[in-house]
Design a protein that fits this description.
The protein is an alpha/beta fold. It has 13 helices and 8 strands. Helix content is 48%, strand content 11%. It has an 8-stranded parallel β-barrel, surrounded by 7 helices. It is globular.
């Protein structure tokens, strides 16, 4: 399995079911993961933002990861999020992931104090060298308040084991231009993918290597329809699949994808638990809109 094959196609980001004390429900988690494997997603990324990694203690992160490894059993590549406030904690989490049997890592530059480019470079260099697993840069300025410059991504791509970047949606909407600037600057084989589900069709049609998808964590069939059409160059089919998902994208933008995902999971009978406090569950007034959005996807 090459790093490029791990960080390409549709990567599904499931919730991590847990109780009010942050204790992971491994049985409910296994059910969620089995659905993703059966659907045929290209990879599964646990303990990402949708997996509420920032709200889980290290012991619970380890329990979730071990449950994922046991459930997935090598059937699809497993990416483990290892973001944390301290470099030493992230290096420990990277080693934990390698020992547990994960196939790759996802790292965001989590910090309370705003970081400099030099600090982020050193952080990623240390974590990348702490295991033998390929690593994806998680460029998520909406949560970390750090934006990777193209120059920093290019420098990081030269480090052994750093194999991919997960990009936010470009403000200009110019996916082709951004990909065209990044690829020549990075080492050969380095992949460029995007998160921000409502931009997935445009990103994939512009040539992105991967869609790192929130919605695929619960509705993998719908996400796969979009991904496969876009990667095959079938613009009309990709845009039709995207249009069917637009009611969900609207809810994601209005309420935050994480909160909406808890409602979807509950409606699907998947026992997600409640969002980790202080995040509050959405009230009943949103449930009807979620039900209608799910109907649109099924049509």
């Amino acid at each position: 399995m090459t790093a490029g094959s791990i960080f390409s196609g549709l990567s599904a980001f499931p919730l991590t079911p847990a109780d009010a004390d942050g204790v992971v429900d491994t049985e409910a988690f296994a059910v969620m993961l089995d659905r993703l494997v059966a659907a045929g997603v290209d990879s599964i990324a646990v303990l990402g933002s949708t997996g509420t990694y920032a709200y889980l203690e290290r012991t619970e992160r380890a329990r979730a990861l071990c449950a994922a490894v046991e459930t997935i059993a090598g059937r699809v590549p497993l990416i483990a999020g290892v973001g944390s406030l301290r470099t030493s904690w992230s290096t420990e989490l990277a080693r934990d992931a390698e020992r547990a049997g994960a196939d790759a890592l996802l790292l965001a530059p989590v910090s309370y104090t705003p970081l400099t480019e030099a600090e982020v470079f050193a952080h990623f260099q240390a974590v990348a060298s702490s295991s033998g697993l390929p690593l994806c840069i998680y460029n998520n300025p909406s949560t970390t308040h750090f934006t990777f410059s193209a120059e920093l991504i290019a420098r990081l791509s030269q480090i052994r084991n750093i194999a991919a970047v997960k990009m936010p949606l470009p403000g200009s909407g110019d996916f082709a231009g951004e990909i065209g600037r990044l690829r020549p600057a990075c080492r050969e084989g380095f992949t460029v993918g995007y998160s921000g589900d409502w931009g997935a069709a445009a990103a994939l049609l512009a040539g992105a290597d991967a869609w790192y998808s929130v919605v695929a964590g619960l509705l993998p069939a719908a996400a796969l329809r979009l991904t496969r059409a876009a990667r095959a160059g079938d613009r009309d089919a990709a845009l039709a699949a995207d249009a069917a998902l637009e009611p969900l994208w609207s809810l994601f933008r209005a309420h935050g994808s994480l909160r909406v995902m808890y409602l979807i999971a509950t409606r699907l009978g998947l026992r997600p638990g409640l969002p980790p406090l202080p995040i509050q569950p959405l009230d009943a007034s949103v449930e009807h809109a979620v039900a209608e959005a799910l109907e649109a996807v099924r049509q």
